[in-house]
Amino acid sequence: MKLKQLSLFLENKPGNVRKACRTLADNGINIETMALADTEQFGILRILVKDWERAKEVFEKNGVIVRVSEVVALAVGHRPGGLADILDTLDAEGLNIEYMYGFFQQFAQTKAADIKDSAVIVFRFDDPDAAVTKLQERKIRILGSNELFQ
Questions:
Q1: pLDDT digits (tens, 9 = 90+) for 1-51
Q2: What span, in angstroms and rounded, lies between the C-alpha atoms of 18 and 83?
Q3: Where are the domains of the chain?
């Protein structure tokens, strides 16, 4: 249920994000989602791709510093209060969020009504294993790679 996320450490200069995306494109690797955070001197480009091992290898061959971390993707009701309800649960369970980012995805090929028109929020927890256990106990819909990368 946990996903592998690649975090690329890029010097904060024009063209570096484009180069990272072009590297993946040139190697036939599709980006499912991404988030960019920056400081004055460098940025962290966080990406989810289906073949994360190959993407990591490609980046490392091109001199890009890459870190792999575990994240958890949740199906969140795409409605007012959908995220607030999830955050209420996370707080009640004492789960600490390091960061999160989201996107909307239509799961056209699924028959699961609970995710048909859901937003997807990707969470980095300080303890991903404990988070998965507690979320499963609360029946929160965790998305696996098969669902996310269909």
A1: 899 999 999 998 999 999 999 999 999 999 999 999 987 888 999 999 999
A2: 31
A3: 2-69, 74-148
Q: Which CATH architecture has domain 74-148?
A: 2-Layer Sandwich (3.30)
Length in residues, the chain: 150
pLDDT of residue 23: 97
What topology is assigned to 2-69 in CATH? VC0802-like (3.30.2130)
Rounded Cα distance between 97 and 124, Å, is 6
Closest among 32, 126, 75 to 21, alpha carbons compared = 32
**What sign results for the dihedral spanned by CA atoms 138, 134, 96, 99?**
negative
Task: Please name the amino acid found at residue 6.
Answer: L
Residues of the chain above pLDDT 70, percent: 91
CA–CA dist 148, 5 (Å, integer) = 13
Tokens describing residue 1? 């249920």
pTM listed for this prediction: 0.88
Residues with Cβ within 8 Å of residue 119, at least 6 apart in sequence: 75, 76, 77, 78, 82, 83, 102, 103, 104, 105
